[in-house]
Amino acid sequence: MFKKIELEKNNNFQLESLEVGLTSQCNFHCEYCCAYHKNDKAVLTGDQVIEIIRQIPTLKRLKLSGGEVLLYFADCLKIIAYCAEKGIKTQINSNGSLLDQEQLGLLRQNGLDTLHISLNFTNAQEHDAYYKMGLSVFAKIIDNITEGVRQNLNLMVETILFETTEKRITELYNYIYALGVRHMELQYGISIDHSGWNKTIFKEKVNLMITEIINCKKPDSLVYFSCLDLADYPTFREQEEELKKQGIFFPRCIEGKKQLHLHSNGDILICELGYPVVLDNLFANPGAFVDIYSNKMPEKLTDFISQHPCRKNAW
Question: Which of 137, 140, 150, 228 could disulfide-link 133, Cβ–Cβ 3.0 to 4.6 Å?
């Protein structure tokens, strides 16, 4: 399972997961987007990423994200095929609008483990009112989700917990389930200082949203609540083991402990979400990934692990 690393206890500081921002370019312009250096035109090629992977013998999984990473489909395919050969799990994070039936088949044939698509609306009118992408784009995304299900791709659909989805979370769950998707991620929306986005919701409302999902969840689906700290939710912390049996999980944050982010300009980040602090640059220091974990950990990293400043505006 791709999310296995996030479900383990984080007591081993070793780079096991890498999220590669192949590009910051995107066909969408989401206000909550956390893409680092949105206007950066740099792109990592498939060959460059493969060479980077070769230098990290501890790597167990690789996420390809952006921007919209599928703008560079051929590079994605090359990386996925290499990782499949080496036993490294792969995930693509996408808005789902650029795929077609043939490409979905190629992703599956080349060994993609998880296709991760974002969806925050259940109809074309509301989707277009928010994203301003045209009514046909929503239909394209839904077609690609259903085609991915038909082709037996491991499909994860993600919804962000923020003001816009607060009152429609049950509707979204039921809609996504009806599409045939059985893996759903609900990610708490984190404040993005570098973009000014701050439409987060308070703990009490998150509690209600989690309860709604527990009450409506179908037995054959799996639900992951990410970017949440169960210390803030004592009721669910007490119920965690029982909820796991029901297919409801609260993945641990592995940013900096087992996962780092690589931007297309070479910057190595602790977390791209709400805390895009640069630890090193791979192009300036080719041994950066080894240095970060083998030497004394950088102060920025130890501070992040102890304080989780990305969540400082949560409540």
Answer: 137
